[in-house]
Amino acid sequence: MIRESRTRSVVKALSWRIVATLTTAALVYIFTKRWDFAAYVGGFEATLKLMFFYAHERIWNKLNYGRKEYTPKVIWFTGLSGSGKSTLAEALYKKMKSQNFKVEQLDGDIIRNIFPKTGFSKEERNRHVRRVGFLASKLEENGVTVIASFISPYRESRDFIRSQCQNFVEVYVSTPLEVCEERDVKGLYKKARKGEITQFTGIDDPYEAPENPEIEIDTSQHTIDDSVEMIMKRIRKI
């Protein structure tokens, strides 16, 4: 939970009093036509109300009335290549960041670029996803909401991550395979169909769809903005 620092309270009090005092002094001058009297009243009022405002701010800062503490979560996007996971995750990250959430993003493609020797066998995929999931759980422990987007095709590795996290939100991006192939932004499906790359999820390697995800979204049926709003509404209730 973010609390108001003493320094911030002082600066807010000063900035407000400058505006309010000038207003008071101007009103006194309008009615009396005396600059000296206007300055005296303005100065006295500023000193008195500065103290009251500071005390008021500090008292309210100690009260939790009207505050809502947000519980950090691990929001895990899973789905086929081209389903829209990364696009959704990026949009959600920007939305939460703009609303001052403490949030970090972990993306499968970016992490594989950092660790390029990560393989694609079932064992290697599971090991890779478990490592990232463990990292996400540690960030969550320290009050950070994590938005992760990984194909993560196997239930066992996703279940492992769930077991490590306090608040795990599985978002299944269920866009159909044929739609993902039509998009094929990176041309990976074409290469997989030609046999130029192997162990490609959805073609010659299985994808085990979540059985009970917290959220399911088909990006061929919903816009990115609508999908993000759906996710935001859902995670506020979790």
From TrEMBL:
GO terms for cellular component: cytoplasm. Pfam families: APS_kinase, DUF2061. It is an enzyme of class 2 (transferase). Residues 10-61 form the DUF2061 domain. Pathway: Sulfur metabolism; hydrogen sulfide biosynthesis; sulfite from sulfate: step 2/3. Gene3D superfamilies: P-loop containing nucleotide triphosphate hydrolases (3.40.50.300). Belongs to the APS kinase family. The chain crosses the membrane at residues 14-31, 37-55. It comes from Salinivirga cyanobacteriivorans. The keyword Ubl conjugation does not apply. Its EC number is 2.7.1.25. The active site is at residue 152. This is Adenylyl-sulfate kinase. The keyword Transmembrane helix applies. CDD domains: APSK. ATP binds at residues 79-86. It catalyses: adenosine 5'-phosphosulfate + ATP = 3'-phosphoadenylyl sulfate + ADP + H(+). InterPro entries: APS, APS_kinase_dom, DUF2061_membrane, P-loop_NTPase, Sulf_AdTrans/APS_kinase. Residues 72-218 form the APS kinase domain. Catalyzes the synthesis of activated sulfate. GO terms for biological process: hydrogen sulfide biosynthetic process; sulfate assimilation via adenylyl sulfate reduction; sulfate assimilation, phosphoadenylyl sulfate reduction by phosphoadenylyl-sulfate reductase (thioredoxin). GO terms for molecular function: adenylylsulfate kinase activity; ATP binding; sulfate adenylyltransferase (ATP) activity.
